[in-house]
Amino acid sequence: MQPTQNLTGEILGIDLGIKDLAIVSNGKVYKNINKTGKVRKIEKRLRRLQRKVSRKYEMNKEGTRFVKTCNIYKLEKEIRHTHRKLGNIRQNHIHQTTTEIVKTKPSKIVVETLNVKGMMKNKHLAKSVAQQKFYEFKRQLQYKCEDYGIELVEADKFYPSSKLCHECGYKKVDLKLSDRTYHCEECGYTADRDYNASLNLASYIA
């Protein structure tokens, strides 16, 4: 870690998710780029191209053999280009998000440890998890923190950041994934579920 003089002394907690990419304890929310009209339009075009090339293969089938025509080569080239375009959009969004976070110059950032492999086993979540590129987010955040001299901490994977009340520490064991608002039965504290988690991460002690 390179020593940097102008850090603020602030500790930021970052909750990562599917609804939004990152929710930060300073109140900043970084959207899920995959839910934007721009990305959905490109994905729709990609699906259309993939269906089109599949039909072309069927039309040009000779027995058990597929014959590639100029049209198929052209379509496959367009599909590769569209995949690259989507990848670049997602990569750029992560770059902009991580850069903006480190430029606030906190002294320490605490990020949750997600069980990405486990999440990928859920057929309803797998595609969304893959598109969010959580590993890439952490990779970029790590090297940028090193450049700024910011301490980066990954909370223990068993730390229940979403289930703890930030105000009183009460643990809500029955909190469901579908519960988007955290309401504490002990002290009455109410907050957005992900924002509450980010505040708990900011208070995390390894």
Automatic annotation (TrEMBL):
Which BP terms from GO are recorded? DNA recombination; transposition
**What's a Pfam family this protein contains?**
OrfB_IS605
Task: List the InterPro entries.
Answer: Cas12f1-like_TNB, RNA-guided_DNA_endo/Transpos, Transposase
User: Domain Probable transposase IS891/IS1136/IS1341, which positions?
Assistant: 4-122
The family database entries (NCBIfam families) matched by this protein are listed as:
guided_TnpB, IS200/IS605 family accessory protein TnpB-like domain
Q: Its family?
A: In the N-terminal section; belongs to the transposase 2 family.
**What is the designated name of this protein?**
Transposase
The organism encoding this protein is Candidatus Enterococcus wittei
